[in-house]
Amino acid sequence: MFDRRGYMHKARIDLFHADNPSENIAGNQHWGHATSTDLYHWENQAIAIFPGAEGEGIFSGSSVIDVNNTSGFFPNQTNGVVAMYTLNTAEEETQEIAYSTDGGYTFTKYANNPVISINSTQFRDPKVTWYPPAQQWVMVIAYAQEFVIG
Prior knowledge:
Order of helices and strands: EEEEEEEEEEE
Helix content: under 10%
Oligomer: single chain
Number of strands: 11
Largest sheet: 4 strands, antiparallel
Strand order of the largest sheet: 1-2-3-4
Radius of gyration: 15 Å
Distance between the termini: 27 Å
Number of helices: 0
């Protein structure tokens, strides 16, 4: 387990992480999922986000609870989870969204992915958070080859 990302919802901590379900080495990356109520005892959950095709990897990102349904994915729900992650292929790294209506156990990939593409193989690790003063989501992202953050 490496490259962790997660959130706390009520008394449960959800930890998503880079996971290769077929080998004990990096590669074939999926989003693994574990939960805890005390940060000491952890329960592995099913894979949260899978690659869609051979040669794809689900790289780092972040997940948020969309309590006000600003995404529009969760009518009549206050605990929907939105994940933004890097989809890695040999040709490009793009930013994609998936959403969960069951508290982060299963995700549906957004139909209009990718949401951000700049034609780069070094464009990853989106971190999204709610910025209350502006009442909007903000994101930072790495341009790894240029050694800058955008």
